[in-house]
Automatic annotation (TrEMBL):
It comes from the Bacteria. Pfam families: AAA_33. This is Kinase. Keywords: Kinase, Transferase. The keyword Heme does not apply. The keyword Kinase applies. Residues 1-31 are annotated as: Disordered. The lineage of its organism: Bacteria, Bacillati, Actinomycetota, Actinomycetes, Micromonosporales. GO terms for molecular function: kinase activity. Residues 1-12 have a biased composition (Pro residues). Gene3D superfamilies: P-loop containing nucleotide triphosphate hydrolases.
């Protein structure tokens, strides 16, 4: 992406939220995007890999998902969307493509790792509104201790952080509280203009 000129908008923000299954990353990512509103793309690893590609998460098949997910993020950024990318995103399969995505992005980047113990991930799974049908044994197989990406400025959020605290940290540390939407819908759409005129934030219509 070429450098921004004085009259062009700043490059969009890339936010990467990683952590083990049950760490709370999906909840935090969805809430962060909800609070930002339109103009931020939420990319969920599980949806793109399981639903779109229907691909197993294993290195033994030379997976397509890592390249597909980061290419999707790159496209959204190029189109002016702030991007919130979330998932387990194991370094074994995703470190190289994520570091390339981060290194090539001209705009702000914020990387978060939700560091939650195995026992706590199991407890959180059991108390989910929509429990995923997995056993603690399966979760143990997926669990990787402190699987940091190892990039500059990576923020580690511990399990003592509440959802509210985690979302607040993500929004403020990434700078999403200080940037505006750059995509056409929030800037030109009559529905978005109507929402902006309301005295209190309301759920946005599809």
């Amino acid at each position: 992406m070429p450098p921004s000129s004085p009259t062009s908008p700043e490059p969009p923000t890339l936010v990467v939220i990683r952590g083990n299954s049950g760490s709370g990353k999906t909840t935090a990512a969805r809430e962060a995007r909800r609070r930002f509103g339109r103009g931020a793309a939420l990319l969920e690893q599980d949806y793109l890999r399981r639903t779109v590609l229907r691909e197993h998460d294993t290195a033994r098949i030379d997976p397509v998902a890592p390249a597909f997910i980061t290419a999707t993020a790159r496209t959204a950024l190029d189109l002016g969307y702030h991007v919130i990318l979330e998932g387990i995103l194991h370094t074994e399969r995703y470190a190289t493509v994520l570091r390339q995505l981060i290194g090539m992005h001209a705009g702000p980047v914020a990387v978060f790792y939700l560091d939650v113990s195995f026992d706590e991930t199991v407890r959180r799974h059991l108390h989910r509104d929509e429990p995923i049908p997995v056993t603690p044994g399966e979760m143990r197989h997926w669990y990787t201790h402190r699987d940091l990406l190892g990039v500059a400025g990576e923020t580690v959020i511990g399990e003592a952080s509440t959802v509210e605290q985690t979302v607040t940290t993500i929004l403020h540390a990434s700078g999403l509280t200080a940037v505006v939407p750059q995509t056409p819908c929030p800037r030109r759409c009559a529905h978005c203009a109507h929402d902006a005129d309301q005295p209190t934030a309301a759920p946005q219509t599809p």
